[in-house]
Amino acid sequence: MLEITTAHYLVLSFLLFATGLVGILIRRSMIIVLMSIELVLNSVNLNFIAFSYQLSNLTGQIFAIFTIAVAAGEAAVGLGILVALYRLRHTTELDHASELKG
Amino acid sequence: MEFLTTHGAALLFYLFAFLALVSAVMVVSLRNPMYSAFSLLVTFLSMAALFVLRHAEFLAVVQVFVYGGGIMVLFLFVIMLVNLHRLREITRFVEHAPLAVMSILLLVALVGYVFLSVAFGPALVSPAEFVTVEGEVVGNSQAIAWQLYREYLLPFEIASVFLLVAMIGAVVLGRET
Question: Measured between alpha carbons, how far is B177 from B166 in angstroms, rounded to an integer?
Fold first, then answer.
């Protein structure tokens, strides 16, 4: 119980991933959806690092650096889209951006 | 005291795992986006601590800089820019929220069962791998830099081009039309 294994990290990272997924699915506000995406990406990083430790291989840590870079770019573009949506609709709720719904 | 020194790492893991989970749930459930943003900051900082516990010191620092610094400032700035006068949403959640939560809980149960039934065994080699370059003990940052600039130079350059493209895209999107 008091020996922290890779399984502990996997379970924690999956719980964080599921929390982020729930946030993406159930919230109306686009800002919170973007935060939930950050949560999901970060939990994947936790997995990379746990396996990097398990296999004693630095590649996992290096891949996590690239994930962080992609997350930063995604946040910048996502928030840019949010500002553009706000200019267009004067709201940040995703229900008001449903033209493609058919 | 002896208990603390023997099991200190495990206790820290549980403490920061608890903090990260509670603040993650707060991110998706709180009404005020500003509070959500600060809960997200707590999650990021706890995860940086968890990185340190897995001998990823350089990544922990990068996590604090990029997430705790850069991304958090972006979020706070945008919240203050667009959302200040409508902090009170009428309903926070979409109509199918209970269905979504139930299916994710089912997913958690299934995947959790798989994770807990797989035995990973102990870690393969000592964590000294993370701080050595060609047999010489350096730091985690230097070990990562060594690998990054030798084995992964092309992906590294592509990442820099990607960041430039993202920056231009964000500027174009945020421009007054």
Answer: 19
